[in-house]
Design brief:
Two copies of one chain form a homodimer.
Chain A (H helix, E strand, L loop, with lengths): L13 H12 L2 H4 L5 E3 L4 H10 L4 E5 L5 E6 H8 L15 E2 L12 H11 L3 E5 L5 E6 H15 L1
Parallel strand pairs in A: 1-2
Antiparallel strand pairs in A: 2-3, 3-4, 5-6
Chain lengths: 156, 156
C-alpha cells in the first residue's frame, strides 16, 4: 500500500523549505554504514552465517581487488535455501544479483537520491561504490529510519 | 556503524523546529501498510511463498479471531530453512517470534515513536494493533524511507 500523502499543509512555507534544503545537503558518506563483504566463492552456508553474525540484511560480494561483483539479500538466500539442503555448499556467485542489475550509489550523492533509488528499485540496501566500482560502504533503510529520528531530535 | 551526527547547524532555528513538530504530528495510521497475515498452522513453505508473493519483509501471525500471535521475519525463516529440508512442512508457530517478545505499535502513536522502536529493538516491521491486540496494519523501514522522500518532496 502506498503511503497517504498530504500530511503537510503546504509547499510554500519558508520554514519547511529550509528543512528540506538541509535534508538534501546530507550526503551518503555522512550516514553510510560499513559494508559486510564476502567473496564470490563463499558458500551459501557461510554467507548466511556471516549475515547473522554481522546482523545485516544484505551482503556485498567482491573480487580479490575489492571490486563490486554482486549483492546477496536475505530474500536471495531464502529463495535458494527453502527445501534445498544441497544449497548450503553452493558458492554465492550462483545466486547473487550481479551487474547490470545491482543498484548502487556514490558517496557524494545525497541521501534523498539514495532513498529514491531504494523505493524505485525496491531494495533495502545500496552498496556505496567509488567511480572505479570499489566497495566503500553500504546504505540501508535502517540508515534512513535513523536519519528521520536524528532529524527530529536535532531539530527540536 | 552508528550514523554521524551534526549535519544540522543547530537546534535553535525556528524553521527546523516547525518542520520537526510537523513530523511528530504524523501518526502511524497515516502511513501504515496493509499487513500480510498467516495462521499459526501455516507451513514454513507456504509462509515463504506468501512472503515472496506479497513481497514483504515480515509476516504477521494471527489466530482465527485476527488477534496477534506472532511475527515471522525473513531472518526467522532463513534461520530454519538453511540445510534443513524438513523445515518446509513445519507450522510457523514453531519458529515465529511470540509474545511478550513482539514489538508492536498502535495507530495513534506518532511515526517518530515507531521509528524509535524499530531502531531500539532492531526490527524492520512493527505490527500495528488495536488495544484488543487485533492486527490492523504494519509499519516498516520502507514506510520510513518513503516518509523521508515525501517530506523532501512536499517541503520543497
Amino acid at each position: 500500500a502506498k503511503p497517504k500523502v498530504g500530511y503537510f499543509p503546504g509547499k510554500s512555507a519558508l520554514p519547511n523549505y529550509e528543512a528540506a534544503k538541509k535534508l538534501e545537503q546530507i550526503k551518503v558518506k555522512d550516514i553510510q554504514s560499513i559494508p559486510v563483504v564476502v567473496k564470490e566463492t563463499t558458500t551459501i552456508h557461510d554467507a548466511v552465517v556471516t549475515l547473522f553474525m554481522d546482523n545485516v540484511g544484505s551482503l556485498v560480494v567482491s573480487d580479490e581487488d575489492g571490486t563490486l561483483k554482486g549483492v546477496l539479500s536475505r530474500k536471495d538466500l531464502l529463495k535458494v535455501t527453502l527445501g534445498n539442503p544441497a544449497s548450503s555448499t553452493m558458492p554465492v556467485h550462483l545466486v547473487m544479483t550481479r551487474q547490470p542489475n545491482i543498484v548502487t550509489i556514490q558517496p557524494d550523492q545525497s541521501v534523498v537520491e539514495a532513498a529514491k533509488k531504494m523505493i524505485e528499485h525496491d531494495v533495502d540496501t545500496l552498496p556505496v561504490i567509488s567511480e572505479k566500482d570499489e566497495i566503500i560502504g553500504r546504505i540501508t533503510k535502517t540508515n534512513m529510519t535513523r536519519l528521520l529520528l536524528d532529524l527530529t531530535d536535532t531539530l527540536l
